[in-house]
Amino acid sequence: MSAIPASLRLANQATILEQLLSRKAASRAELAKATGMSKPTTGKIIDDLVAAGVVEEIKLVEGRRASVGRPGKQLRLATGRPHFVVMDLGPEWTRFSALPPSPPEQERWQVQFKTPTTAEAWLERGIQGAEKVDIKRPWAVLISTSGVVDERKARVLLSPNLHWSEQADLPWMVRQVWPAPVGLVQNVRALALGELGARSDADDFLLVEIAEGVGGTLMLGGRLYQGPLPMSGEIGHTPIPGNTRACGCGGRGCLETLASERGMIQSHREAKGQGVTFADVARAAERELPAWMRATFDAVATCVGAGLNLYGVRRAVLVGRITDLPAPATDYLIGAIQRAALWSRFDAVAVTLAPKRPARGLVVAGIHRFVMPVDWSASNASAQGNRAPR
Ligand SMILES: [Zn+2]
Fold first, then answer.
1. What is the distance between the alpha carbons of residues 283 and 383, in angstroms, rounded to a whole number?
2. Domains, the chain
């Protein structure tokens, strides 16, 4: 038995996994240095993680290392056998894959089908699809879904575009297919987790999705901010002065009614007449920005800037349809957000456009929720229960 208390060992293990999530690979010495732990402590934890299949050791080919000396062994999150099932349950499509602990660089889905309109039909399609993925006993199944999601109770509280998910016991349904713990992740939060480790300085940021809706998520110190309520980051429902449009939430004047895909199409139609699509909106932004678009992006910047100012965060990441607009539009929005952040008077405020990475984000969620708290070295029943005994 180790002399280190179990709780401390778990905390140390989490610190090492956090390091491996934020860098692609690291040597034992680098991990010891970065975490401030002794080399024996680091070594013991790494051996346990390797034995459990969470981490793997790779030999670097000589000459690829910048420093002289013997070729180092590097560690990284395991890339081989799949241990998680990640699932994107969207209003239109359901997609899933079995993936290893290493968060994927490319989004890939092994199974995809049109999301049925009933829970029963969805379960049936899921059972059929499960035969196509190579996993029998996953460590966990992670599901990204939209709407208001109570992640702690694994329930969807409100989903205007997928009403059956509100009544459905998704964890129970998934366990008809795989005997594994199930985690729900609100879809914008999954996108924010997908940004972790994708950039070197992306531990603190506000992610904003501007698509069918407008939502946000705050990442602080590499962990999703979780408030006391099962809803947070809802900047899309901030009322904008002068805006009288009715919102799906029951309120009036919400940012979402202006800045969502539908809101922008409506504004362009009001300015130009009938028969407008999002492609027309994009074309209109190629030359001089229409006045409505400037006003809309100023409103977005006010809300995003307030979030950055409130939390003391200097990076905003924008995802969704907004990234499809031409440079004059996105440049205007980026500049407006930067000006709205007080930190821009002192130093750089980074506003970047990013692709959606839900599969990557769900693997990170799997590591955070189901691997970090587990004591892999102890042979107790609960730890064994989460392991894949194959
Ligand atoms: Zn609203």
1. 55
2. 6-77 (1.10.10.10), 84-192+358-386 (3.30.420.40), 199-353 (3.30.420.40)
